[in-house]
Amino acid sequence: MKLTRRDLFRLGIVLGGAAMLPDGLRPRIAQAESLPASPPTTPFLYELLPGRGIPPVAQPVAPFSTQADPSNCVNPDGTTAFHVSGPRTVTEGMQYYKIYERPVLHSFHPQLPDSLLWGYGDDHGVSIPGPTFIANSGTPQLVRFVNDLPVNDPVGIGEPITAIHRHGGFQAPEDDGYPLDTFCYGQSRDYYYPNTLEAGLTQNYESTLWYHDHAIDTTGPNVYRGLAGFFLYTNPLDTGDEATGLQLPANFYQGRPVGPFDLGLVFQDRQFGSDGRLVFNNFDHNGFIGDKFCVNGLIQPFLTVQRRKYRFRLLNGSNARVYQFFLSTGQPFTVIGTDDNLLPAPITVQSIRLAPAERVDIVLDFKDFQNRAEVFLVNRMQQTDGRKPDGLVSPGTQILKFRVQGSSPAFDPSKVPSTLLPITEGPAQLLPQVRVQRRFEFNRSNGAWQINGEFFDENRINATPKLGEPEIWIFESPGGWVHPIHVHLSEFFILSRDGKTPPPLERARKDTVLIGGDVARETKILIKFNQYTGRYVFHCHNIEHEDMMGQFEIQP
Description:
By secondary structure, this protein is mainly beta. Helices cover 4% and strands 39% of the residues. The strands form nine sheets. Strands 16, 17, 18, 19, 21, 23, 24 and 26 form an eight-stranded mixed β-sheet that branches. The longest helix is centred in the first third of the chain and has 7 residues, at 5-11. The two termini are 44 Å apart.
């Protein structure tokens, strides 16, 4: 007898409730006890470098024949795939990719032994994080993900059952990573990403997305084990070349590589056993909190930077931890984007709060620092369990060190223009069209997670918005917990927080919003679905709160 996480939730078994289980299952529940502290490590020994901390760029392969989706993969809860489709449409100019999910030995820190992770990769190897996709607006992509994960894994973190969600992307239901659309060991699934503008709106040029596992009942451990990577966009404004478009810091100048001056940085907390290898609490219902801070899979690394501007795409890839970043020098951050889009104009802030799945694009200028100067990115948000952060502390934890190099400022043609991506269809245009308002309460009952008092049920639809018609959704969290809520397929605007105007970094387009706790009991958003009909999900991105998920079906 093997009970899934969902079985345990619905039985009302919470931490300390192992006595309710049959004797044969009690050893599994023993994992719910607190893990011992990780072995000590010296910070700033590993450098972020290409091939170690800076993942490779995913490379197209020769065209291949598309295939029908597998339909015989049984999920941990006994269900099978919901969306089963035939071969994908072949589009002119389409790029093809093959990405493998495979075990990989990975070094988090030179003072710890390698841990056996699961990662994404190609024929040249597997990386942590996975290869970075670069998508050009208007160029469709077909990505075949192949499941080569072991069936009898010795580590016991995760299940070799996967689904791929491109977080922040616009794609058809069968390509969205619906959590029941899984494929197992020896199977593969094709994902078609059209990369077209949403309803032709220039304002929907996207920038920073990411992709990760999204399989039902196993997302938390699978992502924790390593199944995540960046998915970035270029477009006529955000070109990836410092000589064109907005001329933001980039890795190319006049078509030639000069970087890396545009880097994705994913922040994750991890825990290690007495032997120095990765461990995980499979039955922490609150949300997993680790005691080691990793950047791109390395514990407290450093990055050598030139005396010039850099663009950093910050991603919170943790299961439950909320960060609040400051710079050790006291200088502010220049923010140019939140979640999947650039802002209308840059915003200067002293700190950045980042909840799970949120992204913030920043520009840091090291021009005025002297050679060998050191600047630290510091997390001052203390959090000891998955319920919510404890609050700001001082001095906090130095997570990443920037080591400045150069006797004089470096060549830097990049800019931070005063206008980035104007909002041409925002609340002023959409609010007069609203006819429907919906309320969703995110709550906890008997140790389990619910929306409007109900567990996730693949046979129930929570909302039926109509294509092209804006709606107001109200998210409420009355229990004192925080929940980062992600809505698939569409961006949205945060209208209010407990009736008040949201802070500056929440006044543009978002795809994930933190609710509850000291943030806001009630959050009101404005949302519209422009491009596809069909079934999608919205859910808490504390990825141990997997039953806190609902479904909406967009009507024509």
